User: Which sequence fits this backbone?
């Protein structure tokens, strides 16, 4: 089974890794929508000049999941 994961990232243009596979939002959008197998997936979000965000996301059958991430600057800004 699969379910939808939507990741919204500020600022846009970040690199998103899901289970080690690289995805990238474009400079004009802050959203990535993917369909993943049910289960736990590791998400890592990177952008130069910002702290890396890491989390595990539980994907459940028939339940769309949204992850909202606002990256903070490397100096806590």
Assistant:
């Amino acid at each position: 089974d699969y379910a939808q994961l939507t990741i919204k990232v500020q600022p846009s243009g970040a690199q998103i890794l899901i289970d080690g596979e690289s995805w990238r939002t474009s400079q004009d959008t802050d959203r990535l929508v993917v369909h993943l197998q049910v289960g736990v997936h590791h998400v890592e979000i990177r952008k130069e000049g910002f702290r890396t965000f890491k989390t595990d996301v539980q994907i459940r059958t028939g339940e769309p999941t949204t992850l909202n991430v606002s990256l903070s600057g490397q100096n806590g800004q």
Remarks:
- Strands lie at 2-10, 15-18, 21-24, 31-37, 39-46, 53-59, 65-70.
- The first strand starts at residue 2 and ends at 10.
- The mean pLDDT is 91.
- The CA atoms of residues 2 and 37 lie 4 Å apart.
